[in-house]
Amino acid sequence: MRSVLVAGGTGYVGRALVPVLLAQGHTVRVLARAASASRVPAGAATVIGDALDVASYSAAVRPGDTIVQLVGTPRPSPSKAAEFVRVDGPSIRAAVHAARSGRAAHIVYVSVAHPAPVMRAYIDVRAAGEAAIMAAGLTATILRPWYVLGPGHRWPIALAPIYAAARLVPSLRAGAERLGLVTLAQMVAALASAIEDQPVPRTIRIVEVPEIRRARL
Fold first, then answer.
1. What does the alpha-carbon distance between residue 131 and residue 123 come to, in Å, rounded to a whole number?
2. Would you say residue 163 has pLDDT above 90?
3. E strand spans, 71-162
């Protein structure tokens, strides 16, 4: 059993993850603003706070916690560069500070697959988040999906023939695998596995798309 604090637990991935963690026997608290408290999955405790505010985030962390950082701009696109700077950057910096000052045992961060030829502003902010985790000397798992398929998030399925063709070309195969699509179920399974299988203290584990795809509950 882990004591898990989820930031972003009312979002797309978080609402699917929290019930799984509860079913596995973990104690789950969700950091949420008052306006989002009604969307916290049943069975999880609600901690009212702001994931972009260092003091608010730090107050929610208990020693030994596993912090799951899912906060980010919904439906990222190249047009949302300013939002990445306003939301994604401050949220991971607050999480890092909270993990270090609150003596969290493990931070789990959903970053993004890179390098990639598109979404550079998004990648820059997420890579900076990874760098902050590394500089802080935390015990961490960093997951790097490219796109998570699920309800309301299925348009990239149309790109399946392009992915299939790219895998047949030796020079493109590695990129097609690194930037491959994962399902919401695979993402949740990979997160749950990362939480249960905590890395050795002060080490950082990177989970790329092929490993996410292999994850099962």
1. 12
2. no
3. 106-110, 140-144, 147-149
Give the range of the structural domain holding residue 206, as residue numbers without chain letter: 3-149+182-214
In the prediction, which pLDDT does 164 show? 84
Q: How many whole angstroms separate alpha carbon 125 and alpha carbon 135?
A: 15
Confidence of residue 129 (pLDDT cuts 50, 70, 90): very high
Q: Tokens for 136?
A: 């802080």
76 inside domain: yes
Residue 11 inside a domain? The answer is yes
CATH number, domain at 193? 3.40.50.720
Give 73-108 pLDDT, tens digit per residue: 999 999 999 999 999 999 999 999 999 999 999 999
Is there a domain that residue 134 lies in?
yes
**Cα gap 83→169, rounded to integer Å:** 36
Q: What is the rounded (10 degree) CA torsion for 155, 192, 46, 53?
A: -70
Q: How many domains does the chain fold into?
A: 1
